[in-house]
Amino acid sequence: MVARAAGRCGDGRVVSEPQPARRIALEVILAVRESDSYANLLLPVKLQRAKLSESDAGLATELTYGTLRMQGYYDRVIAIAAGRSVADIDPPILDVLRLACHQLLSMRVAQHAAVDESVNLAKTVGSRSAVGFVNGVLRTITRSDVATWRARVLAETDSGEQALAAEFSHPLWIVRAFRQVLAAEGRDDELPAAITADNVAPRVSITALPGRATVAELDAYPSPFSPVGATLDSGDPLQLDAVRSGRARVQDEGSQLAALALSRTRPVQPGERWLDLCAGPGGKAALLAAEAEIGGAVLTANELIPARAELVRKALAVFNPVPEVLELDGTRVGEQFPGFFDRILLDAPCTGLGALRRRPEARWRKQPSDVSTLAVVQSKLLESAIAALKPGGVLAYVTCSPHAAETKAIVGGALRKHPHLSRIDTQAVLQSIVNEPLDLAPGEHVQLWPHRHGTDAMFIQLLTTTAAG
């Protein structure tokens, strides 16, 4: 066995160097809490710099995402074991305890290894007394099995939604929002499955950009629904030449379907003008650009935030000529381009509740007040898109959230305000595109779900206008 390096804390204590995967996981978790960093952006950078082995990189990934997903449940366990509220625990030490809980309660890690490594981590961020506290709390946790801890946590909650929120580590307001949508579909019995799916790491999904790559050339399984999609069980997608060259992209299958719903609603007429109104970071724009190129249409992308606009340009760099990328306020585009575009994608800024399995920290950052704030922006953007749409054109309103206030409510408000605006049967459009039939609740909109479709929970509604407007 290779000996670990040792160092000294500020108080002179000798500290064994924490195992690299655990150290990196803690660094990411600390950054998520202290700096509002995004784990899915920060972790790959740290892994690349550390040059970890494949197994250690996999361990760091599971530790990071697993801990962030189950943070709410682990906080309840820690509070019981410590005999105090987690609000009274020094935040870095609490992060160490959460990381340890994931190893003890959700992974096949030897208890002594999880405790010892966590104590080493605590020495890097806490005082001598804090280290003793960590050791004591973790020893308490190891004295009971997983089932006993689950029973103790549930015993401190009411039944129903509160128990689901506690056990599956979701804020209660999100559980209630999901229940509302599922109940409207007549499927509220799927609520446990819906929130459980948020705690399962998604498989890597890839888009083969039409005209640039094919699904057959990707060393992956064809996606069940998207005709341009493929799925990897594991491995680095950058090992695929098509991904490295930009001819294929990592993209959730639900996002693929949202773009294809617009591009394949009807045959493309040469010369059509398309707009991706809120294009950052560029995944859907790239797929639309490929579809537009084949049909003889011209895509324009718009993204207000310069850094995100640059990501869109990079995503579109594979095309020649590269589609134009504007940096305009999306709520004003309708004034600047009235009745100009034949097809518009509005992938509206939203809470992102449909992608909690990919961005686990989002569930703890979002608040119910965010929904109402975003709804104002979503409505303004939809108004702008309607104004920019040519009579008879097609508009796709899309969110990566199933929350009713961000989806059907926004569309319903626009329909009431604009008599010339009407729905297109989006389900019929998608069912004509997909490889296998989608299991959808009745209606003209499409609501995808991780537990039902293996995609992010994308909402898609196609709209069109008449000359009466």
Q: Residue ranges: pLDDT <50 for 5 or more in a row?
A: 1-8
Strand content: 5-15%
Number of strands: 14
* Most strands sheet: 8 strands, mixed
Secondary-structure class: alpha/beta
Tally of domains: 3
Q: What is the CA–CA distance across the termini?
A: 75 Å
Any idea what the shape is?
globular
What would you give as the CATH superfamily of the largest domain? Vaccinia Virus protein VP39
What does the model show?
With 469 residues, this protein is an alpha/beta fold. The protein has 3 domains: 6-147, N-utilizing Substance Protein B Homolog, Chain A (Orthogonal Bundle), CATH 1.10.940.10; 157-197, no CATH class; 252-465, 3-Layer(aba) Sandwich (Rossmann fold), CATH 3.40.50.150. Helix content is 48%, strand content 13%. Strands 7, 8, 9, 10, 11, 12, 13 and 14 form an 8-stranded mixed sheet that branches. Strands 4-5-3-6 form a 4-stranded antiparallel sheet. Helix 1 packs antiparallel against helix 2 and helix 6 (111-125) packs antiparallel against helix 7 (128-142). The longest helix has 21 residues, at 368-388. The radius of gyration is 24 Å and the shape is globular.
Brief account:
Helices cover 48% and strands 13% of the residues. The chain has 21 helices and 14 strands. Strand 4 (221-222) and strand 5 (229-232) form a beta hairpin.
Layout of helices and strands:
Layout: E1 6-8, E2 14-16, H1 20-35, H2 39-50, H3 54-69, H4 71-82, H5 91-106, H6 111-125, H7 128-142, H8 146-155, H9 161-167, H10 172-184, H11 191-197, E3 204-208, E4 221-222, E5 229-232, H12 241-244, E6 248-250, H13 253-263, E7 273-276, H14 283-295, E8 298-302, H15 306-316, E9 324-326, H16 333-336, E10 341-347, H17 362-365, H18 368-388, E11 389-399, H19 408-417, E12 421-424, H20 426-431, E13 446-447, H21 450-453, E14 459-465
Parallel strand pairs: 7-8, 7-10, 8-9, 10-11
Antiparallel strand pairs: 1-2, 3-5, 3-6, 4-5, 11-14, 12-14, 13-14
Helix pairs in contact: 1-2, 1-3, 1-5, 3-5, 4-5, 4-7, 4-8, 5-6, 5-7, 6-7, 9-10, 13-14, 18-19
